Amino acid sequence: MNPYAIHTAMILDKRREAEAIDTYRLEFADPALRRTYRFSAGQFNMLYVFGVGEVPISIVSDPDEPEHLDHTIRVAGRVTNAIARLQVGDSLGIRGPFGRGWPLEAIRGKDIVVVTGGLGCAPVVGAIEYIFRRRGAYGAVKILHGVKTPHDLLYRERFDAWRHHSDTEVLLASDQADKSWQYHVGVVTELFHQVRIDPARTAVLMCGPEIMMRLGAPILIERGVPASAIYVSLERHMDCGIGLCGHCQMGPYFLCKDGPVMSYDRVARFLGQTGV
Amino acid sequence: MWSDIERVGDLPIGWRDTQEPGRYRLEQSGDDRIFGVVHGPQSVKPFSFAPREPLLAIERRNKGFAASPTIPKSEKVAVLGARPCDVAGLAVADRIFLHAAYADPYYQARRDGLFLVTVNCTRAVSTCFCTSMGTGPQATSGFDLALTELDEGFLIEAGSPAGEDLLSALTSLPASQESCSEAASRISSCAKSQTRRLDTSLLPQALYEAHEHLRWDDVAARCLACGNCTMVCPTCFCHTVEETPDLAHQRSEHSRLWDSCFTQEHGYIHGKNFRPTIKDRYRMWLTHKLASWIDQFGTSGCVGCGRCITWCPVGIDLTEELPALLNRDAADPARQR
């Protein structure tokens, strides 16, 4: 198998989430690939724009519906700028899926605490949907999400929908508030005090700015959650997706293949270090 | 320098190299040895891991495009004069490119065509430290033929079935006891002549623990972040991917190119550079080479060829830096001030 092979896919839908952030629904041009492609929540694809290049983007759609793939993309650089110019009916290239996603089978039966920040919630959206599709297989679910401003809140309807599941709490925080904001004002880690956590039976899924994970995980550990039960999704420069281009290293790990989801105990020592 | 040869006369007979930190000179040796030059800037790495490798040829089609892999033809290439450190470096590269979750088909195609004639070293330059890395001056595996240059002729050893085939086709004499002992003694005196060494016994752990050592500031003040060390290293494998569309925007070449962890872009991701300073980058390079490499691939990333010392424009020497970094007495910022 050639891990560099790029497969074409068509944009079926393009939905605005916020300023300069869209979710693209993609479908492989090749019907055989549509049938065989599988991924797990938290994995990513390398998306390719003709003549421009590739960029790693996590898959946010449900792994149970692998025939179409949703990617939420914020315009940030050369390739994402080019993607933003594409419309429904245009083609993108896909290479993937790559990396290790959330250990959703291993944490069956546990209470789930999801801690996210900013656009960082994208890689965990698929995991949340996975859990709700199997609601009985998991304990209490708490979703804590922080944004800088109310304007940055993506997936607003999803948060509203998740709130209505049984034994589920959704708590939102914004660093800055406006008149419309009816939730917590402050950072997401302050929400930890507003939820009951049974540390012995909890698994934590964290995704967002590294500082949120670096400061948030120790608070949860202090409350008794084992470091090995806290999973973080990390981001680095990635050109290949297969642990070969060297850019995504964090200590001994290649985050593209050993991650992007890592248990906190494995990466804690590197998260606080400069230049890693 | 590697280049195509047509006859024995194309070889650098009667020349030798002298190498020191930041210095490389070729001079006449005054003898007629064929392999008096120990090594040039490049190991054999470019033969299998091409500095620029087109990966895909992509053509626009209506609203979409079609991407076809451009896996190179496996051409037969005999490399004459690879050194044992080069052969060791190639074995490390093989682990990275071929023995991972995905075998790299581009590397594989080039690698399959290689026939390696290594020349055991009977002379070391001042920057060599293969003895302490256990990779030379004699090659023990990974070659097709190994030559040892003697006063009269060569001692030849086959290291593969292909090497045996070629050896049996040569009009050579069975190796005499004398030749064997001459070869052994030349190799052993080459080993003994090496003055540089790298003590790897505390690796990888001790180097991870040296992350905040003051020595990093010291070496960063000298390092130019030019990336030479990574370009001449037999094992450095970082690469970037480049897209080259034609002017009409109908065709595009998707290629990988050697990259270096000393560049601005290496640790860059939308608005943030994880390794903004030269200190971060030198630390990344050395920690990877000597420590995390062991965790990743079960072997050191250093084969002791010394090229990074010679080709560093300011002569930074990792055999000096490592002991300084592992010296705990000098590690404490408080004690230094």
Please describe what this structure looks like.
The complex is a heterodimer of chains A (276) and B (337). In chain A, the strands form three sheets. Chain A has a seven-stranded mixed beta sheet, sandwiched between helices. Chain A is α/β, with parallel strands linked by helices and 276 residues long. In chain A, 20% of the residues lie in helices and 31% in strands. Chain A has helices at residues 31-36, 78-84, 122-133, 156-163, 210-222, 264-271; strands spanning 7-18, 21-28, 44-49, 53-58, 69-74, 91-98, 111-117, 141-147, 168-174, 184-185, 202-207, 230-233, 249-250, 253-254, 261-263. Chain B has one domain (8-336). Chain B has 13 helices and twelve strands. Chain B is globular. The chains are: A alpha/beta (276), B alpha+beta (337). Chains A and B meet through strand 1 of A and strand 3, strand 4, strand 9, strand 10 and strand 11 of B.
Sheet with the most strands, sense and barrel status of chain A? 7 strands, mixed
Helical percent range of chain B? Answer: 25-40%
What fraction of the residues of chain A are assigned to beta strands by DSSP? 25-35%
Reading off the top of the CATH hierarchy, the class of the largest domain in chain A is best stated as Alpha Beta
Unreliable residue runs of chain B: none
Estimate nothing, just give the exact number of structural domains of chain B: 1
Q: Going across the major beta sheet of chain A, what is the strand order?
A: 10-9-8-7-11-12-15
Total E-strand runs of chain A: 15
Q: CATH topology of the largest domain in chain A, what is it called?
A: Rossmann fold
CATH-scheme architecture of the largest domain in chain A: 3-Layer(aba) Sandwich
Count of DSSP strands of chain B = 12
The general outline of chain A is: globular
